[in-house]
## 1
Amino acid sequence: MSYRGLTERPIGRALAGICCFELEPTRWTLLVPCSLFLGLVLVISPTVSQEVPSAKNVLVLNSFTNRDSFIELEPFKATLRTHLSMPVNFNVEYLESTRFGDEGYRRGLSETLLHAYSKPPTDLVVVGSYPALRFVLDYREHMFAGVPIVFVGVDPSRIERQKNWPVTGVTSTADVRGSLSLALRFHPDTQNVVLLGGLSEFESYWDDRFREEVYREHQNLKLIEVVGLLPRAALDRVSKLPPHTIVFAQVASQDSADSDLKVFDLIRAISQRFPTYSIFDYCFDRGCVGGSYPDQEEDGKKAGEIAARVLSGEKPENIPVEAGSTSRPMVDWRQLRHWNIPESALPPGTVILYREPTLWEGGRKYFLAGIAVIVVQALLIFGLFWQRARKRKAEAVLHESENRFRVMADSAPSLIWMCDEQGKVTYLNEQWVVFTGLDKSAGYGDMWVASVHPEDLPSASDALSRALRNHKPFSNECRLRRQDGVYRWMFGVASPRVDANGCFAGFIGSAVDVTDQKVAREALEKVSGQLIEGQEKERRRLARELHDDICQRLAMLSLRIEKASKGWGSGRVSMEEQLEQIWKQCSDLTGDVQALSHELHPSILDNLGLATAIKSFCREVAEQNGVAVVFFGKSIPNSLPPEVSLSLFRVVQEAVHNAIKYSGQKHFEVRLQGEPDHLQLEVSDKGVGFDATNGASGGGLGLVSMAERIYQVNGTFEIDSRPNAGTRIRACVPLTEPPKAMGAAVN
């Protein structure tokens, strides 16, 4: 999605101060030279414009500043992009249509839109709701002469008399009758209906429609109008109304209104006192119960299909206006609960929003887990009965079983222990004794306490005490002193055990050394931080390149073009020489931008393959830095997986840049050779070198990045370097599939 200028900002608010294009002079200053530069590039390279279809510029104008109400926008964008092969740039403006009664505001708004979207030209104007459509039609010749218009969300009665006009779209109407009937269905004892409206043309139109419906179909109701009041005054007026009253909110939000109480706050406050409805769905999640509304997402898709036909060349007047979707009841489940409205009162097909999950939906996994636990417990109970029936046989083999356990526990690599129902240790396996150096002849008892780190002892003791009370499995993590005095992190788990009678007899547990895992996790977190820092550093570098180099040179190019176009310097330098100098600056600038883009992502890698991309990179970096980078390629497959090609290319980039920066040499070699089942890459120099062992363990971001890229494609990475003996970086990547064809050697 492309935004520029006033994009995604209520333009009415901008006009309250100064014009929007005056708020951002830097952007407009840069826009002029950039436009001139792009124009020259298109003139010099016509073949490029023929191959890549030009983007279409679509300006979307919504009638209201409330963005939540423009539900059709995203489906419209997605449908339009699906039906078009060329790229589409969207610019979205949210207008304050409640101020359209002010002619000065309308004129100022038209001037602002003209300045903001005249260049590049707009290919299509899309309007949401009638106020924006009326405004665009009134000022079309001034702002967008000849530009086709597609609308969405416009009531059919607004356009029924229009014939042969350059506008088409999708109609949609507010279901006044359906919304009012839904409210009376929920509140059959209603005596008063409050119309909460405004004074704008849009609000007045729908207020009249609402009055007609009440007077024609519901003469028994008393219609109370609260129209054109400030929010605070409207709230005071409604608060004094009697019971058996429902409220229909049809007042639009106005960003520029100076009030201590905003429209949406007003609706929320009123909805606490009276059931509140609306013929528009803009007040959902703001206290309204609901109403009858069309499917705006479906209408947005229809409008997107029509817009695609217009951008493909069809004239709007030849495309018939489509009717929007049928309205359907929609309600807020929370408000149903608030006003004690049973779901049985809902009409068939009602859409219920914000529904809380049912007890089963919210706790399904817990119910399933509970059922599983119950089943397991039932099986355990059954097993206990079965075990009691075979008690004598179990007692006969118990001693043998304990002996086998001790043999197995003593040979296990983890530290295993047992305690009785009081928490006194009765058994420690051989690994525990060897690890801690305890004296077995002195007995176990509470001697394990002396091996736990003092800082971790309270938590370990508390965990064991709670487990002894609850007879539940538990786990903990603490530091345990090894016999050499070094503390190691241990992760332990324990489960309750029972005696022959099924009674709780204590716990049996084990512990494993997790120190290395903790160190590795900390190292990984450190590397992650370095990667983020490296990414931010690269972004800052690109920002400096664009600002200090490209933008400055564009500004100078703009001045030179201006001088040439106005004939400055006549008599000193001929027009032909000035144009030649401008052409040379454009060519140099194009080359630098291309080189910068190649650093971000080499398009040649996707189009011509790995060997050609590496060869081109070596040539470019050699020319830029005044060094010799020799590339040798042999038996390189023509077709490689994209992730393999990109990983090897990035390793070459990083390795060559590091070699140029740190080796102190002017000659470097890059070798890439294909084998039947793998690719071998080698980057070498004969420079100052470094201690590869310390460099790798030190966590240099460049070395870590290269290694991680190779590991991600299941390859191996190796650094061979010593001080004053040069550096050689090797990478070997397996080929998951046999190559279809082998390319010739590249040198």
## 2
Amino acid sequence: MTRTGWLVILTALALGSVGSAMAQEPKVGNDWYEDTVDYGFKIKVPKDWGLIPPQPNEPNVLASYSASFNSQIMIGGQGAALPIHMALLRFDSRPERKNSKTIKLGGQTVEYTVPPSTDVHKWLKERIAYGVNWRFDSEKYPKPLKVKGSEEAQYWVYEGNHRAESEVTISAYVAEFSLEPNVKICLYGSGPGDKKWRDYESAWSKMAASFARVAVEEVAVDPAAAMGSPRAKKRADLQRTVASQAGWRLLETENYFILTNDDDEGFLEELMVRLEAIRSVYSEHYPPEKARAIVKKPKKEKEGEKGEERPAAGGEGEGKKEEDGSVTALDPVEASRMSVLRVCRDEQTYFAYGGPGGSAGYWNWVDEELVIYDDKAGGGRNDTWITLNHEAFHQYIHYFYGEIDIHSWYNEGTGDFYSGYQLKHSRFVLGTNSWRETTVQGMLREGPTTKEGRKRGEGYVPLKEFVTWSQGQYYGNNSYDVGGIECYAQGWSLAYFLRTGAKSKAKGWRPEWDKILDTYLETLATTGDLDEAVDKAFPFGDAEWEAFENAWKSYILSI
């Protein structure tokens, strides 16, 4: 599952399971959040509450802390819940602070910006709204705070409820520390608005009172970063990122940077071996030189537009070099060799960070970050490896073809194809996807589904229609009532058939089918036209569609 990056860090916490609240009151211990990189301050944080980093494009949150994923306050008649947590925030309006980046979208370079909230009160109502009517007694607040290092420090206590749907009240403690005219650091802490609030407010206020300034120090980085080395610069940026994120660290392989709070060294060593091994498989099937040949072709001209040649995927990982030797234009090959993987130590951390509900991993193409978690306590490590192989494919292909609009049968089906690879002596060998195989075989035995009648939603989708489906239809919003799990299984089976049918001498295989996958991607990459890509990849009449579908069914059922 791919994922864009503009969901705020706290969203997934609010969308989690909503059973009875398991509020764990914050305890003040000896743990600190310390920023010696940008702002120069430290503040005590809840004892034994883990630090959740902000997403890469988050403009206001520095760090978040939560007792557990299920630490929530029920706030609405529809089962809505507000997570109990603490967040450290920044409101930095200095002109030189730029919160934007350039991204590739639809073959064009655009400026992408996540607008920050301009002060803590707007942040509370914009980012922690969840249908809550937040308010404070303006005659009582703000109250001054006496702390070291901030001449202007003050706090508010907010109250709220879920409109008229619930009588449950919620409270929030908000402290603000002024570092300079255009820079403020804030602490936000939530809790139940009943008699238990006194304990929460006491804890949050003790943490606020611990605020103090510290010296800003230089982070030790590779000197090559100053000389323009892209990998060294990326390493330096990530080193600065983790410097104030206690419990998180930076690891790296030849082609990947890994951010993790997992301390299982055996797991991490195996993960790094697997990353490089599966990348070798991707590069065999999608070699950079092949991508270069495709993307150099002129774009298809549309009405009123002039076709233009796109930049080639890089050759030996070199960007454009200036006279002083610095690299100013990073090519796709070099960019792909700096892929970022964030590995959360468990499911709780993953969802707190922003993992979409029901997912086991996602590729955030806007911020070029792949996120997974160690599932040893859930489905087991094998589920982690299946997810890694799938999502890392999305990451790899992004650097060579950009974020192109692509049918899910190809995109997700190919990701699932790689999920079936098994590691044998540090090399991957092809296998089937255990998540998909039995599901699709059951669908095939049912026969084709129909839009109405007893077969509705019970079998497979006719391939002639399936290959045209949008992402929404693939995820279950379709006229056949076929669910997303079933579509993923069928997508895997189609990719598996197309990639292995010829070599395995599938019954009924025709030589012209060898080119379907290449024709589809090349057409789509050069024209951006989904319909044309399907038409050129599958130039079938009714008779050939029938032969193709029969060969696919026979092959998958014979596995």
